[in-house]
Write the structure tokens for this entry.
Amino acid sequence: MNVMELFSLKNKVALVTGGAGNYGRSITEGLGEAGATVVIASRNLETIEKTAAGFRTKGLDVHGMQADQADTASVLTLEENIQKQFGRLDIFVNNAVSRPMKGYAAPIEQFDESMKVNATGMMFILREMTDLIIRSGGGSVINISSMMGMYAPIYSNYEGIRGMGDIAPDYCFHNAGLIMLSRFMAKTHAGKNIRFNTVSPGGLFNNQPEKFVENYCKKVPLERMANNDDIKGLIVLLASDAGAYINGENILIDGGLNA
């Protein structure tokens, strides 16, 4: 098959949770540019519909739907709406994340709240969308983790910066678990024409303080932070036939920081 055909997502339906966030927008754009019909979902329907409309002005086939990952009824409604409107689901990018815990010493109730969304809620939506993809004939699930699910924080990046450096442990905890869960799902659903992979990005530039950017980039062999295009190609690879033999993997995107 021609390599451009391998990367094509024409006639594929993709779901991206957290589609209005920084990585979510880049992922949605990449899938849409590769030809997919993309559903983006988040709790705020007004925001997600506005985001989808912005993509449609660029000629991309993007639709917004409301979903609260912590609410099982909301997830089931999302699944039902995708089935009703598009008749199938081929790709699920599991990207939504909540960050209620604000630091190491935050009230433990915030850890519990985080787990409700990022562990229990995430497992439920992952299981439901997996079943929908299998019923549709198979496809690809891409879980978005973080380099902080693989490596401990580099506290020296925050030296000299007020208000940064108090890392919340829940974020590291659930992202590490997500990497192993992808491997579990790959083995559990063997023979069902579905692949599960994880992407662990780090260092996305988001107008952080100049001192942080300086500290960070000194440690990165590429001497820069990630930009909005850096994740797009990998997502399309894992979603498409170009990545048809990649399964159960975790791919780190950090510019060589942890090499």
About this structure: The chain is about 40% helix and 15% strand. The first helix runs from residue 3 to 7. The beta strands are 13-17, 37-42, 62-66, 91-94, 139-144, 194-201, 250-253. The longest strand covers residues 194-201.
